[in-house]
Structures are given as C-alpha cells and as structure tokens.
Amino acid sequence: MFFSGKMIYLLLFLFVTALLVMTPRRKVALSFAGISIFLVTIVSSIVSIKALISANTDSGSFLQFIQANISSLIICDKLSAFFILIIDFTVVSGFLYSIGYLKPYLKNKPEAWIKLHYLALVWLHASMIMVPLFRNGFWFLTVWEIMTLSSFILVIFDFDAKGTLKAGLSYLLQMHVGMIFILGALVISSKGFKSVSFNNLESFFQNNSNWPVFLLFFIGFGLKAGFFLLHTWLPDAHPAAPSHVSGIMSGVMIKLGIYGILRVTTYLVNDLAAIGITVIVLSAITGLFGVMMAILQHDIKKLLAYHSIENIGIIGLGIGLGIYGTATGNIMVSIVGYAGALLHTLNHSLFKSLLFYSAGSVINQLHTRNVNKMGGLMRLMPYTAWAFLIGSIAISGLPPFNGFISEFLIYTSLFNGIGNPEFYPLIVIFIAMLSLVLIGGLALLCFTKVFSIVFLGQPRTGYDEKPVEVKKIMILSKVLPVVPIILIGILPFLIIKPLMSLTGSIFGIAGTIPDVSLYEPMKFVSFGAVTLLLLVLIILIIRALVVNRNRIHVGPTWGCGYTAVNAKQQYTAASFIQEYTALTKPLIKTGFSNLNYNEDELFPEKREFHTHSDDFIKSRLIFKPADFIINLLRRAAIFQTGRLQHYILYLLLFLLLIFLLTFLKLI
Amino acid sequence: MVALVLVIITSFVFTGLIIRTKSIVSGRKGPGIFQPVKNVWVLLNKGIVYSGISGPITRMAPVVVLASIVVASLMVPVAGFKPLISFNGDFILFAYLLALSRFMMIIAAFDTGSSFEGMGASREALYGMLLEPAIFVLIAGLVVLTGKFSMSALFSLPVDTGNNLIYGIIISYIIGNITLVENSRVPVDDPKTHLELTMIHEVMVLDTSGFNLALIQLTSFLKFAVFGGLIASTIIPNNLPAAWRLILFFIVQALFGIIIGIVESFRTRFRMNRNQQYILTVTLISMIFFVVIFFSKNIF
Fold first, then answer.
1. Which residues does chain A have within 8 Å of residue B118's beta carbon, measured at their own beta carbons?
2. Does A515 touch chain B (CB under 8 A)?
3. Torsion angles phi and psi, residue A554, rounded to 5
4. Residue B258 CB neighbours (<10 A)
5. What burial letters (b/e) apply to B56-75, b meaning 16+ CB within 10 Å?
6. d(CA A96, CA A85)
7. Distance from CA of A397 to the nearest CA of B (A)
8. Under a CB-based contact definition with an 8 Å cutoff, are residues B237 and B142 in contact?
9. Strand runs labelled E in chain B
C-alpha cells in the first residue's frame, strides 16, 4: 500500500517542483513557481468545475491520464470541488500579491530562503488541493502534514523578527496535536476495516455512537480552523507571517479544518441533536470571543486574525444549524444553515484575503503593524484604502456586499428554527441568534475603528518616509477578490439556486424544499442592493448639479473655535473603544504599561506607553501547563550530570528494573 | 407604493411636530411645524464647506446614509398598506441597512481628523451594537407570534387573539425606545445640546454642511417616519377599511410625535455612562416580550 506506485506521482510532483524552484537564478525560480501554481490551478479547477456541474453526486470525471492511474484514490465530489475552487482562487491572488510584497525583502534575505519560500508556496497549494481529494486516511494525513510543514516554512519567513519563530513553532506543535486527534479518530472509526479511510465512517457511524468520534474529529480539525479553546496559535501566526501567507492561510487553509468537519458531518447518522447543540454553542462562543478580542487589538494583522476566529464561528453556526435542523427534522433550517456555512466559507476567503493584502500593503509602506502609528493613508494610498473599505463593509456583513448574503442565509435558517415549539431547542437557537446579532454589531465597531484609524484623518505620528501607493501587481491582486465580493453582493439570486442544489447534493437533502423560498428573497435583496447603488448615484448627480463647483469651499476642521488642531488630538484606536473596554472589563483583562516616575529619577528617560489585552485562553490553557511541564523537566535535569559514570549507573539501574519487572511477570 | 408615500409625507412633519410640542409644553411660541423642512430647503441651496483634511469618505457618506435609509423605508409596512418590497427575511435587510448607514456615519466622522467627532462615533458604534439585539429579539418574538417572516406580516398582529392590546403596547414601547436611541433623542442624546463633549449624533456631523447636512437631516426625518410607521401598522387593526386605516395612521403618527415631544420636555438626558444600561434595558424588555409570547403560544 505505502509504495504502491501511485504515491510516485505525488513524490514526483514535489521533487520536480523542488528541482525547478530551487534553480540558481531567482527570476527563473519565481517564474517556475508561478507556472506550477497556474498549471495546478488550471488542472484542478477544470476537474472541480466538471465535478460541480456533473449530475453524478459522487465523483467527477477526471482527466484521462490521471483517471487511469490514481483515480481509485482521488475522489473529487462536489464538496471537494467547492473547496478546491476557493483554494485556487485565493492562492493565485496571493501569489500575484507576493511578487510585489516580497520585493523589499529580496535585498536583505538570502536568495535560497526566498526560493524556499516559493517552493513552500507551491507545495502548500498542491497539498491544500490534495486534502479534499483523498479519502484514504494515510494519504489524507500525508498531504495534511505536507500542508502543515510548508505553511510553517511560509510563516517563519521573517524569522529574525521578534516572536516570529515562536509563533511558527507554536503553530507547528499545535497542528501536530490536531493531527494526533484526526489520526486517532480515523483509527478508531476504521477498526475492523482493511484500510484507514473516511469511507469507513459510513458504516461505523451507523453501528456506533457518533458523538465521541465526531468530537475527536472536531478537535483535530477545529485546531486548524481555530475554534474557541483551539485557536491560540492563530492570533500569533498570522501577524508573524508575510501578508500574502496570512491571506492564504486565513482565507483558505483554516477552511480546510471546516472542510474536514463538513466531510465528517456528511456521514453522521445519530446523536445529531447533541452534536448540533455542541457545534452551535461552541461556534457562538467562538464568534463572540473572536470579535471581542479583535476589537481590543492594535496590531492590524492580529486584529484580522481574531476576525478569522469570529468568522469561523459564523461558519460553525451554519454547520451546527445544519446538523441540528436535520436532527429536529426541520429541513429548511438544515439546508439553509449548511448553505450559509458554505457561502460564508467562500465569502470569508474573499474578503479576508482582500483585507490581509490591503493591510500588508500598508505594512509594506510603513514597516509597522501598530494602527496607532498610522492615519490619513486614504489620500496617500487610495486604491488600498478603497479595497480595505470594501473588505470592511463586506466582513461586517453589510449590504450591498457578499458578507450580507451569507449572514442572511444563516439568519433565515435561525428564524425558521425559532418557530420550534419546544423549549430547549428554542433556547439553543435563541442563543445562536443573539450571538450572531452581537457579532454583527461588534464587527461593525471593530472595522469602523480600524478603517478610520488607519486610513482617515491625519497621520498620528508623522511618517519618516512618505508612504506611496503600492505596485500595480499588488493592486491587481486586490481587484481579483473585489470582483466576486461585489458580484455576490448585488446578484445573489444568480448563485442561490446552484448553491442550494450543491448543498442538497452534498448533504443528501436535495429537492426537499421549494426553490422559491430563497430565490424570491434573494431577488429582492438584489433589487434592494441595486436600488441602493442607483440612489447613491442619483443623489451624487443631483448634488453635482445643485451645488455649484465655486460654492464648495475648503476650510479647517471645526475645533470648537480652536484652530490650531494638531494630529495628536485625534481620536485613537484605544480611545475609540474606551467605553467598550470598560464594558468588557469583567470578561477580558486589558492592561497598560506603567508610566510612573520614580522619585530618585532626576532625569527621567523617555517613557513608552502601550495598552495590551491578554488572551486568557492562551495563558491558562497553553502557557500554564507548558510552564508546569518545563518546571518538572527542569527538576528532572539533576539527573543530567555530565559524568559518564552516572550514565552507566543509570543504564545498570534500568537493566535491573527491566530484569525485576520480567522476574515479577509484570511485562 | 402607498406605504412609501405615506412614510415620506409623515417624515416631513414629524420633527416639526416634536419641536412644536416641546415649545408649547415649555410655554414658548416656537417655530411652525414645517420649519425643519424649510431649514432643509435652505440647506439644500447652500454651498458646502469641506474640511481640508477630509477626503472622499466625507463626500460619499451623507449620500450613502440617505440612500440606505430610503431603501430601508421601501420595506416598511404602513397600516396594512403593502410596502414596495416585501419578502421573507426583509427585516434582516432592514436592520443591516440601518447598520450600513451607521457604518458610513462613523467613518465620515473620522475623516475630518477632528478631536470631537471621534467621540460621537465611538458612542454611536457602541450604542448601535447594543441596540441591535433589541430589534432582533423583538422580531424573533413576532416570528413566534405570527409564524411569518416578512415585515408586512410581522408588524400586523392577528386580529382574533385577545391579547393584542397588550402586545401592541409592549411592541410600541420597544419600538419607541429603539427610535429614541436610533435617532439620538432624549434621554440618550439631546439634539439641542450645545456642548460638543455631550453630543452623540450632532458631534458626528460638525463638519458636514450645506447640501450634505440637508441629506443627514432628511435621513433623520425618514428614520422617525419609518419607526412610526412600524408602530402604526402594529396597532392599527388590519381588517378596517382603507380610509379608516389612513386616518388612524396619521393619528398614531401624530401621537407618536407628540409623545416624543412630551418625553423630551419632561425627561432629562442620562449621564453618558448610563446610556449603556438604558439600551440594555430595552433589549431586556424585548426579551421579556419574547418569553411572554413564547409561553402564551406554547403553554397556555
């Protein structure tokens, strides 16, 4: 099995790309990486589009050559196809972005490191595509591992910066913990089968309780996705990684955790209510926690990373509703919930990569991630600013962009469930609704904050060198996601039918609800969006006609009569959320650095002031146990004396112990 | 179409009515009912002064704010008259359009780099966030009550049940309070205050002038009419003839305006840090409404 010829193709691909990308000339290496990514994209997109449009729900037809050789291992069903298309889109835009983004690094990083970075990108792309394709456990875990390793290389690109390596290692370790859980779940579910495979789940779930094994899978995949309690690697790894990597990781790689959960979900048969409730409650907490922490962040990429957690929560709500709807027999709740989750997966990959690219452009110019050092960038970097604005409106779930459509679907699912006459189901749905509403409001608070502080007003601390708009290719890579964001937002009725049939065929609930129940609303949403845009246009034209150009004047900002307003008097990120911080004090601990001067300090040094908010999950769940283990090991270090005699003694003791145990028939 | 026309008509007199009530109650002569509309007309014909720091957001925001409220008002049912757009889940679009207008207002406030406007923006964002659950919980309660999903069905109570009066009063009370917060009126905010430090809405538009200020004022007129329309369609029985509904609608709207005026005259505004509690209380009242509805539906 292990070396049954078929693995050769994967090895061959990895080897050939490695050879090509590591060629001596950097430019050649870059173009090879590009060619590889585009080739893989084209092939996999064709395959997945074929799978999506084929009537056969189980497997799409594959290209002739591959079909003859490895088709028995690769199954491209609609769920895989959906994820592959998302991956392809984001990786291509990320690659284009990286060309511009890495330019300043070319001088001060060793050439081999840059090449290795691109090699890792190529491998990450290929392995991410393989993940949804393999059902076989061994193969799945192999590509899962390649994905983890290559993304680790990508994350630690800026390894000499403070904290990067630590964040990368934390990521690497936690991913392996997750892998153990997945492996365990796979092995447990494959007991009595010839090979370890996801396909075994079907008969396993029919004969056994679903809930424990699902939980194992959920923890394993949830570590990748970043659910609450499993998220601690995420807010560190994203800021540490270069922006295109953050975009790809946050946009699509963590979605493969969602893929895994969805894949397992398709096999579920019993314990549905318990699983559904667990997923809903965990997702609600995830979403709220993510956005509540995000608001407190002043590091722009950390903020976006916490928003990934929030959006995973929203997607999880959709999945939970899907499972729960199936459990209670409410098909409308179920199918619309799943559809919302799928659409939000797509949408989040679009606007999150857009936001990361825009944030990256800002960081590229300013060399800082602290929003309080930014300001007034809209005039200096207009395209980036508009891209970030569109992303912000979309991620806050506001019309007329795509985020609204997926949240609309999840709300529809929720409100369909709220008519349930039973008490406990109602409580669950009610909590889910309340959290989704709060998430929406909090996201608005968060994104008005970050957009305003970064792009509007005046620079808060002046810039050493004036930022300029980034290179064309970086703008182009932002335009790529903007187009579908707007299209999905204003023409949702075009995608709703395919989306519903896709959801129906993935989860085996096709054709049970009339199309009209969602097609009609979507048409009206679309009508509303178009009317909104038209109205904006009309009012703008009227204003242009009514207000003569020579009656428009420019004056100073109103300062209550005080005209010498300077940039430091503007609202900052911390002051904008001051009331919010006070409100959440019981939940989230925020602190600030000490500013007091000592009495004996005659010539006080320059003081730095910064506020910080601690992720209490990280300190309690990761650091405390880790410190405990480290302390324990430190105590154990007395055995490490460095004297050969002692070591020989240990050896002797060990042998004696073995002898004793054997003698007592204990081993 | 009738609904939209009605909303627009009432929007023009609503603010005037409030001001008129306040002046009568306080024993002043006061301006006429149409004074706010005249003010808007004057503003529409004025030139615009932009802050030198501001950019495209300041220029775009008032337009988007008005447009989104207009689209939201297309979905508002008025006393049994069908709105222009009505579909399952339209209240989500409605609430999120209000949120969009809030988003634009907030970022426009920051665009001028002012040291005051951020203050209002910060409060607006927080209060908006706290208020949204109230709206959605109220609607959830109505969904349980009626089993329908569109605003025109939700905000018209079934005629036959005996509890309608109670429901009507609670719903009107909640929407009334939501209106006060959304429109930044006393006790949350005072539109007539003259100190920037205590403003919420007014401080955000300090640097908005002329045509743009007119757009913002039109928005606040429309918002009043929209919420008033919701109240009217909730408490006016659906089975009356159209003419009666029309008359009742105007009476309800006028009463709503007068009540707001009276409330503003006799109530003092809260200290800023009390506002959060007040808004959360509104949310809690909607939750109580939800629970009452749930139990009356499923147990009694």
1. 452, 570-571, 575-576
2. no
3. -120, 130
4. 17
5. ebbbbbbbbbbbbbbbbbbb
6. 17
7. 8
8. no
9. 48-51
Q: A626 has which bridge partners?
A: none
Q: Domain ranges in chain A?
A: 271-548, 627-663
Query: Read out DSSP for A111-160?
Result: HHHHHHHHHHHHHHHHHHHHHHHB-BHHHHHHHHHHHHHHHHHHHGGGTT
Cβ-based neighbours of A496, under 8 Å, separated by 6 or more: A518, A519, A522
Strand, helix or coil for residue B83: coil
Bridge partner residues of A136 (DSSP):
A197
Q: Is A246 helix (H, G, I), strand (E, B) or coil?
A: helix
Could you give the maximum distance between any two Cα atoms of chain B, in Å? 64
CA dihedral A137, A142, A144, A149 (to 10 degrees): 160
Peptide bond into A586 cis (omega under 30): no
Residues in chain B: 300
State how far the Cα of A296 lies from the Cα of A614, in Å rounded to an integer: 10
For the stretch B198-215, pLDDT in tens is: 888 888 888 899 999 999
Contact indicator for A219, A175 with CB cutoff of 8 Å = no
The answer to whether the CB atoms of A426 and B294 lie below 8 A apart is yes
For residue A492, say if its preceding peptide bond is cis, omega within 30 degrees of 0.
no
Q: What residues in A contact B126, CB-CB < 8 Å?
A: 445, 579-580, 583
Domain span holding position B104: 2-298
Q: Say if residue B13's pLDDT is above 60.
A: yes
Q: Which residues pair with B50 in a beta bridge?
A: A554
Strand-pairing partners, residue A553, are B49
Predicted local confidence at residue A60, as pLDDT: 45
A583 interaction partners in chain B (CB closer than 8 Å)? 126, 276
Give the nearest partner residue to A547 out of B90, B102, B210, using CB atoms: B210
Q: Pick the closest to residue A253 from A178, A323, A183 (CA basis).
A: A178
* Identity of the residue numbered B208: T
Nearest to B93 among A445, A457, A525 (CB): A525
Evaluate whether A557 touches B112 at the Cβ level (below 8 Å): yes
CA-based nearest residue to A261, from A311, A205, A320: A320
Q: How many domains does chain B have?
A: 1
Is the separation of the CB atoms in B261 and B17 below 8 Å? yes
Give A563-589 pLDDT, tens digit per residue: 767 788 888 888 888 888 888 888 877
- CA–CA dist B206, A438 (Å, integer): 29
Spell out where A360-476 has E strands.
none
Q: Transcribe A265-325 into DSSP letters.
A: HTT--SSHHHHHHHHHHHHHHHHHHHHHHHHH--BHHHHHHHHHHHHHHHHHHHHHHHHHH
Q: How far is A297 from chain B (nearest CA, A)?
A: 16
Residue B71 has a pLDDT of: 95
Token representation of residue A282: 């965990």
Sequence length of chain A is: 667
Alpha carbons A445 and A577: distance in angstroms, whole number: 8
Q: Which segments in chain A show pLDDT lower than 50? A: 1-5, 57-65, 68
Contact assessment for residue A232 and residue A617, using Cβ atoms and an 8 Å cutoff = yes
- ipTM value, please give it: 0.95
Q: How far apart are CA A325 and CA A45, in angstroms?
A: 32
Q: Which two tokens stand for residue B68?
A: 């989104």
Nearest chain A residue to B88, by CA: A521
How far apart CA A173 and CA A152 sit, in angstroms, is 10
> Which of A304-318, B71-85, B152-166 has the least mean pLDDT?
B152-166
CB A375 within 8 A of CB A456: yes
Radius of gyration, CA atoms only, chain B: 19
What is the DSSP secondary structure assignment for residue A371, as one 8-state letter? G
For residues B6 and A283, give the distance between their C-alpha atoms in angstroms, rounded to a whole number. 43
- Rounded distance between C-alpha atoms, residue A103 and residue A90, angstroms: 20
Q: Which of A438, A441, A524 sits opposite B85 (nearest CB)?
A: A524
Structural tokens at position B78: 């008025």
